[in-house]
Amino acid sequence: MRYLDLGVILVYLVGITWFGARFRESQKSLKDYFLGGRNAPWWAIAFSIVSAETSTLTIIGTPALAFRGNMGFLQLVAGYLLARIVISTLFLPHYFRGELFTAYELMTRRFGGRIRRLTAGLFLILRALAEGVRVFAISLVVSIILGTGDMLSIFVIVLLTLFYTFEGGMTAVIWTDVVQMFLYIAGAAVSFFVMLDLIPGGWRHVWDVTSALGKTQIFDFRFDLSLEFFSRSYSFWGGVIGGMFLTTASHGTEQLMVQRLLSARNQKESRTALFSSWFVIAFQFTLFLVIGLMLFVYYKDNGLAAPKVYDQVYPLFVWQKLPPGISGLIMAAILAAAMSNLSAALNALASTTVMDFYKPFAMKRNPDVTESHLLSVARRTTVFWGLVMMAIGFLARQWGSVLEAGLGIASTVSGALLGVFLLGLLTRRASENAAMVGMVAGLSTMAYVKFGTSIAFTWYVLIGTSATFAAGMIASLVWPNQQKGDWKIDNASKS
Asked: Do the domain assignments include residue 465?
């Protein structure tokens, strides 16, 4: 047992749990619990966006991609920037009209309650499945540290994260994200320099070996309309276009990210946080891919066999090869990323459940329902979703690469969400019935693409969005929108 490393990890787990739980006293309303009182500065929200966007999947999954492939994953990053331009110009102005708590209240304003419930329900399913993969990713790390099985590892981390999220709400999520992001960036930087010192010849040797094998390649500009082209996960066209649609969907329509944008003091600060986060994201992906290249060279030079699970290559190296204390710090950094993302997901799932389902139902039965009652329900709902995360995490053990599994799940459903949002934002003709038809068509199309073709996940959101939008427009010929004029703001703020 490496007591120094375990001590570092224990101090982190206890410290971050205590730090997050301290925000309980500031949680006096749903606005406090779900939006942090809209008092967080833009830079804290930017770091929180980074934490949610990268998570443990980035830290353990991205090095594995470079270890067995090349740097092609970076092609998605350009698409991430384009998506932020679309979100800041198209989505944010609508989100800051009235006082919205969730992304799906916008659907009530444009279409009606049925679409709101459908989009919110899809988010709950999507986020629960995607976070289940991330919970399993946590277990890969904890099981290495403690030598425990997957089930105990999942239970320990989810329980600790659930505790401070339950207590501190969105305020705890944002500020623990800030601490945790700096910790895992520092951990990655330390591991980079320590690994470089362990490789004879340093960076020159790493570059010579990996470039000779084509592992430093970033761009793949090949273009045709064959099935083989659309089956490649990482091409320039798939990366830029697919990355733009994927990020527009995740940051523009999913409560996990929209909740952070809505927590800003105003639209300007929300936009600043969104764009600032891109620069950190680009740096992070580059750093973790380079770490993957270095691991490849280390394994090759020493004649080591790759681990059976590629996603374990980085945490295994950290735990087995780095000096005591340093390995504990980096493992704590990996857990930091995991906990920050999980806490955000728990709060987003709870806010969607309460604001889009429970509160409208409760107010119909009792218009005088109190804020304290809703806050109590919000906390109990957070616990419920924590238990769901554990259950899905146990099932996710059979789903392959954690990074690609997480992105694949998100991409399968996100297209229908983005499609119906664009149908509402870009057109006035489509009615609620037409939007419902569009979503059914989009989801059906993606079910076929996912299970009946070899098309890469990077194209999923584009296909799902196009199918949803096109079907909705066609259906609007049968069910046109009868409402004239601009959207009603009052309904969105009251619902």
From this structure: no
Tell me the CA end-to-end span of the chain in Å, nearest whole number: 54
CA gap 171, 420 in Å, rounded: 30
Buried b (16+ CB within 10 A) or exposed e, 241-250: bbbbbbbbbb
Given a contact cutoff of 8 angstroms between Cβ atoms, the answer to whether 371 and 29 are in contact is yes
Tokens 């009235």 sit at which residue? 98
Can you give the CATH number for the domain in which 77 is found?
A: 1.20.1730.10
pLDDT along the chain (495 residues), means of 10: 79 85 82 86 91 73 87 86 93 86 87 89 84 72 64 77 86 86 83 87 92 88 72 76 87 88 91 93 91 92 82 82 80 76 87 91 85 89 89 66 53 85 90 92 89 82 93 92 55 38
Instruction: From residue 29, give the alpha-carbon distance in Å to each of 34, 86, 164, 367, 379.
Output: 9, 32, 17, 17, 12
d(CA 466, CA 414): 12
Q: Is residue 408 one of the residues assigned to a domain?
A: no
Which DSSP letter does residue 28 get? -
Beta carbons of 170 and 36 less than 8 angstroms apart? yes
* Integer CA distances (angstroms), 78 to 92, 230, 282, 305, 461, in order: 21, 19, 9, 34, 16
What torsion do the CA atoms of 10, 13, 19, 22 make, to the nearest 10 degrees? -100
Q: What is the pTM of this model?
A: 0.82
* Nearest CA among 108, 104, 105 for reference residue 127: 104
Q: Which residue in this structure is represented by tokens 């889009």? A: 356
The number of distinct structural domains making up the chain is 1
DSSP string, 239-294: HHHHHHHHHHHHHHH-HHHHHHHHTSSSHHHHHHHHHHHHHHHHHHHHHHHHHHHH
Helix, strand, or coil here: 233?
coil
Question: For 335-344, b where at least 16 C-beta lie within 10 A, e where not — what string?
Answer: bbbbbbbbbb
- Domain ranges, residue 260: 3-398
Look at residue 475 and tell me if it is in a domain.
no
- Residues 364 and 148 sit within 8 Å (Cβ to Cβ): no
In a domain, 267, yes or no: yes
Give the number of other Cβ atoms within 10 Å of residue 232's Cβ: 17
